[in-house]
Design goal:
Elements lengths: L3 E9 L9 E7 L2 E7 L2 H14 L4 E5 L8 H5 L6 H6 L4 E2 L9 H10 L9 E3 L10 E6 L2 E8 L4 H4 L8 E3 L6 H11 L4 E6 L3 H10 L5 E3 L11 E3 L2 E4 L7 E10 L2 E11 L8 H11 L3 H4 L2 E5 L12 H14 L3 E4 L11 E4 H7 L5 E8 H16 L13 E3 L1 E5 L9 E6 L2 E2 L5 E6 L1 H4 L6 E9 H11 L11 E3 L1
The structure holds zinc ion.
Length: 482
Amino acid sequence: MSGSNKFTIVQMNDSHAYFDLHQEMFWQGARAVYRLAGGYARIAAIVKQIRAESQGRVLFCDCGDTIHGTYPALNTQGRDLIPILNSLGLDAMTAHWEFAYGPRVFQQRATELEYPMLANNVYEKETSKPVFQAYVVKEIGGLRIGLVGIASNIVDKTMPPSYSEGISFTLGKDELPPIIDVLRTQEKVDFVVLVSHLGFPQEMKLLSEVHGIDICLSGHTHNRLYKPVLNGKTIVIQSGCHGSFLGRLDLEVVGGQIVDYRHRLIEVEAATQPDPTVDELIRQALAPYKNDLAEVVGETVTALNRGTTLEATMDNFLLKTLLENTGAQLAFSNGWRYGAPIVPGQITLNDLYNIIPMNPPVSTVELTGEEIRAMLEENLERTFSCDPYEQMGGYVKRCLGLNVYFKIENPPGRRIQKLFAGIEEVRPGRSYTAAFVTPQGVPQKYGRIRENRPERIIDAMRKYLSVHRPLHAELRRTFVAV
Ligand SMILES: [Zn+2]
């Protein structure tokens, strides 16, 4: 390749099936502010504009967490997203929560997409054969570009077993050098782009160990990278979540080398004129649920969000519901990152599904003080491990009824300084009743008398809101970094 050339990469990641406009959280000084953003019809309009500006020399990639996260998505196991995604003109995708429907359903969805699902790190257990293709080569304005996918590797490690039935996951690192070699020597590509869902810290470590990647499209950790990060010569971008942002990277190439680039993290603003074709597909997909999901089920004084690592108002509402519903002393839930914020005012049924779209049963378990400490230490290590490859959580486990004083920087298993249930220190041999949702809330290996109650969490939250009107769910200093 010689002479001057240009191409543009557009990134979407972690859109979590937010079909249409929704609230998004932004920091302003000491507080959070909220405004409407997102929706695939606005994304389509922005990408169309970029294609026009770039004479079609555009690659549009999706780093995954796309077909799961809202009620309409879960109700059709992601099927209702397919025509919408196909209308966006994507070039490739990788995956994470897509596996929540079970690998077989997900494989079916992947065949319905008109672009390849890429993952170099997912294998059939029985045959050791890869489940998805590892890479695809795209030709654009005379340049050959290899796109390599790495799916999230935590699916068979920290998520419910049904997500990874019959399949296993690796980090994808050892597979990369031979793939890059094939791309460079046989496929004769000019550039290699990694489409990843490992998470920003994990990808940064991987890029320091594997060479030959020009651009890394990062996903999973919901980073809003307002500027690209350079790792050696590799340009890394990540673009928020919920489809509230797109990343745009304009590259200038001379003699087969990237000589200049410009980047913009584009907010998908409410004022963007939606693409009418995609908008119509969205209307059709949402029509069956529109009235039911718009039902007002409560009112909140507190803005409910998940934008904070140690504790979040949205989860405090969920946990308060668990305590009241069960009479348990403690409540636990997973530190999920996704879930569009709910601003003060009315709460709809749709909002409740955005908090926990799986609508799992309310569960209870007996835990000893020793187990509580071990479970929290394990979670803190999976969140803050100094080895990024060991970071397998989302945010810190959501808890209520506990106060945890801990040192982030300490070694694994040695972070918690003081642990209280109410005003009493948690005693190792004592038994505590706990309520939780999903095996991510309290993993299977902890506790006794584990029970799923007949009631599901959405109904429990509705009941809670009917009694507590308006809702207050402020932060409670559950985890304090000391
Ligand atoms: Zn993810």
